[in-house]
Write a structure and sequence with these properties.
Blueprint: H1 2-33, H2 38-51, H3 56-80, H4 84-92, H5 94-124, H6 130-146, H7 150-163, H8 167-173, H9 178-185, H10 196-209, H11 212-224
Helix pairs in contact: 1-7, 1-11, 2-10, 3-10, 3-11, 4-5, 5-6
Length: about 230
């Protein structure tokens, strides 16, 4: 009986630790996995189709870069106690504040366009009409926003994040050659030389890894959670 009680206590401790971790790191997890959106997957797929394994080393380098951008964003929120837009208004004045805000709005609108293109294209494979897809997505998004409960939204976002785990077995289903991945992918090189086309693909991968919205969202989340 004591053994079962002890195991149950340990189990509760583990669950509480996981919940605390998700409470604190939730926005960061969402920001990182949200880059696996329609635009991101299209960019990665196009890069792989064009250059094979040759640019994996560049994607690996983007990992720590994305980490430090997020870490800097968390520090800004914890120290200034302001969201990113508010911090810009306070530090640089209304011109740059409104410039960053309008720029964010425009870029987010373009991002939403790509998301709807990706969702309609994906569900069309299963015979779902694009009109039906748009109605369902707008209804779901409207409900998430209008009900006003951030924690409900974050839990739903975690659910969508968990679905992204499917990419791991999917990568192994094509039976990649470990020798080719290590030999071609992890050795820095510029296939075909450093030309305009390669530069375009490199910039596209950077753009889908570090987006403006993630900085604004994560810094505001840090302030809302009262992190220090």
């Amino acid at each position: 009986m004591k053994l079962l009680t002890g195991m149950y206590y340990k189990y509760r401790q583990v669950i509480k630790a996981i919940q605390l971790y998700l409470l604190i790191a939730g926005p960061g997890i969402i920001v990182m996995i949200a880059d696996n959106d329609a635009g991101g997957i299209t960019t990665y797929a196009a890069t792989g189709a064009k250059y094979g394994y040759s640019l994996i080393w560049f994607l690996v380098l983007l990992g720590p870069i994305a980490y430090y951008v997020q870490e800097m964003t968390v520090r800004l929120g914890a120290v200034t106690k302001r969201g990113h837009a508010e911090a810009i208004f306070d530090a640089f004045g209304p011109f740059w504040g409104w410039f960053s805000f309008l720029d964010l709005t425009f870029v987010n609108w373009l991002t939403l366009v790509t998301e709807f293109i990706g969702m309609t294209a994906a569900l069309r494979i299963f015979g779902v009409s694009p009109v039906i897809t748009v109605i369902i997505v707008i209804t779901l998004m409207g409900w998430m926003v209008m009900q006003g409960k951030y924690w409900t939204w974050e839990k739903l976002a975690f659910l969508f994040c968990a679905i992204n785990l499917i990419y791991i077995p999917a990568a192994f289903m094509i039976h990649p050659s470990v020798k080719d991945v290590l030999g071609q992918g992890l050795i820095p090189n510029f296939p075909g030389g450093f030309n305009n086309e390669l530069f375009f693909f490199l910039m596209a991968n950077i753009g889908t890894t570090i987006a403006p919205w993630m900085i604004f969202f994560q810094q505001s989340a840090v302030v809302d959670k009262g992190m220090k």
